[in-house]
Amino acid sequence: MTAFDHLNEIAPNVIWDGVIGRSLHGAEATLAAIELEPDADVPEHAHVNEQIGILIGGGLTFRIGDEQRELRPGATWVIPAHTPHSVTAGPEGATLIEVFAPARTDWAGHERLPPSAPRSF
Asked: Residue 82 sits in which domain range?
């Protein structure tokens, strides 16, 4: 096993319709490159993982708890564990990087697509 990989060689998981993630899993955390298709919806959900992210491209309407914001590239967020949140991508879609702690072991059962070059990284 090697400590190195390349984003193009990581098979993406289908997280929701129109949302894929390429993830690196460590013992304590997951780093994920997430792509949302235009107007994709991530329904309200919560999980045991703390979630920290940065929007790299596109736009999002993000709701965390009772707070909602329109986000553009460079925006960041921190979602405490067990906090309800939801996202809708803008008409251009969105590209983001997120860290989850503890690691996202629940993604292992999601559909995997063949490795491919990410849309906008």
From this structure: 10-109
Specify if 115 maps to a domain.
no
Give per-residue pLDDT as tens, 17-26. 999 999 999 9
Q: Is residue 114 part of a domain?
A: no
List the one residue out of 86, 99, 109 whose CA is nearest residue 36: 86
Output the DSSP codes for the chain. Answer: --S---GGGSPPEEEETTEEEEEEE-SS-EEEEEEE-TT-EEEEE--SSEEEEEEEEEEEEEEETTEEEEE-TT-EEEE-TT--EEEEEEEEEEEEEEEEES--GGGGGS-BPPP---S--
User: Does pTM surpass 0.70?
Assistant: yes
Domain count, the chain: 1
* 97, part of any domain: yes
